[in-house]
Amino acid sequence: MRDAHRLEPNQGNGSVLAAWERFVQGEDLLPGVRPLVAISWHRCREQYRVDPLLTEAPIAVAELDRTPEHDVVFAELGFRAASVAHEVGNLGGVVTIADATGRILAEWGDQATLAKASDSNLVPWFCWSECAAGTNGMGTALEAHGPVLIRGAEHWCQAFHNWVCAGVSVRDVVTREPIAVLNISCWRSQLPASAGGWLANAVTKTQHTLKRRARDSGSELVAAYTQARARSTAALAAVDTGGKVVIADDMASVLLGVPASTPAVDPTLRWNSRLPELIAAARYASRQAARDPGWVGSTQIFTHLADEPTSISIRPVFSAGHLIGNLVSFGASEGAQVPQAEGTAHPGVRPRRLVAMRDNRMVLLRLAEVFFAESQGNDVWLATDQGRLRAASASLDKLGSELADAGFLRVHRRYVVNLSRIREVERGVKGELSLVMDDRANEMVPVSRRNAPAVRRALDI
Questions:
Q1: Which end of the chain is more exposed for a tag (fewer CB within 10 A), N or C?
Q2: Residue 151 pairs with which residues in a beta bridge?
Q3: Per the database record, which ranges form the HTH LytTR-type domain (predicted)?
């Protein structure tokens, strides 16, 4: 936010305006435009398709699911904004608070500037997200991880070119999702010299409050886990409302791919299992439990190193009446059925990844990273962009059948090859084939005589 202390609102405004005029006409080169602004303009034009001639922000229609963290943030920011409203107003500025959808919740400041703001709907209950109003202090701060300064012609909509805005979002300390955004705006003048420091200080204090709450909720989840662990022999883990793991026992840690039975020194530091089905189920459970505290659900998910889906049961955990996370029991299936989230694998369908081992770590590989799999003795080795790794699966036959519909082909009793990573096909003097892979070493994989016809069909040669 230090830039807000020294940058003039019209610094480079002529060149930025010229770049804006060319960009809205379809050109892509943006000389003299800051990267943060250029990226935002591309989102506005290509993704959100915001009309650059829009003259006012639309009314907010999205409803936000309120959580205790939201209430804490809104109250904290409201207190801090109100406390400096007089100072900001005397300097000709206005301060606004918006929620994660970009909907303005409250506004304070100079009466003349507030009147100008109303012409553009820079007032409560109107939406200033990027997808609604283009590049602006509030909307772009919700997209960026850090403070944002938008000056004059850097705004996507021409009608807002007379404004200078500085915004910064407050994010959940665990999920890193935005909760609210604090913003100061001025009309045809530079921002108050104190704007940057005040915004940074307000957000820091609010984040400190959130971190303390996250630490407390993490400790409560560990306590709930410990009590449940004493009553059950099933593999067990505790996850927060975003699906991140706070603590897991030995068996659950293997299934989730996280450290076992030792919560972080700081309970605000959580582990991401990188299991999209678990994350989706935990978030669904949180929504259901917010409506029905007695809700319990079950579903099936694919876990690390497992060839078949595993049943899990999810039980919400509350503290002082507030939902703080869920206990996940493996091998259990009690409660209501959790629907499969769109885009996640369904039971019976293997996730499109390969699991390899590097020392004591599991490496999750995208299929495109793998050149070929090779059987050596009792192990299967994977040639990958990350080097040579031992596959979690010890059966080349099973690996080949699982990946047959993903562009992999058995070319030899010892090799399964990713067809998309073949660079050349070499023909020997007796007609035998060898595949030259597109790795740095251009490794060669032999094709057995019995598999040669299938290789020719697959490569259309």
A1: C
A2: 164
A3: 354-461
The CA-based diameter of the chain, rounded to the nearest angstrom, is: 89
- Same-domain pairing of 142 and 171: yes
Condensed to tens digits (0 to 9), the pLDDT of residues 429-442 reads 777 899 999 887 88
Does the pLDDT value for residue 142 go beyond 60?
yes
Q: And the tokens for 193?
A: 């010299």
Range of the domain at 18: 3-211
Contact 394, 379 (CB under 8 A): yes
Q: Are residues 184 and 145 in the same domain?
A: yes
Count structural domains, the chain.
Answer: 3
**For residues 290 and 149, what is the distance between their CA atoms, to the nearest angstrom?**
37
Checking if the pLDDT of 348 tops 60, the result is no
In 3D space, the residue among 458, 448, 372 whose CA is nearest the CA of residue 416 turns out to be 372
pTM for the full model? Answer: 0.58
**Ramachandran category for residue 397: left, alpha or beta (phi over 0 → left; psi -120 to 50 → alpha):** alpha
Q: What is the mean pLDDT of the chain?
A: 84
Residues 333 and 362 in one domain: no
- 367-392 per-position pLDDT tens digit: 888 999 999 877 889 999 888 998 87
DSSP character string of 144-168 = SSS-EEEEGGGSSSGGGTTEEEEEE
Q: Which residues of 304-329 are buried (b: 16+ CB within 10 A; e: fewer)?
A: beeeebbebbbbbbebeebbbbbbbb
CATH number, residue 271:
3.30.450.20
Residues 109 and 67 in one domain: yes
283 with 242: CB under 8 angstroms? yes
Question: How distant, in Å, are the alpha carbons of 97, 262, 351 from that of 197?
Answer: 17, 38, 47
Q: CB–CB of 285/314 below 8 Å?
A: yes
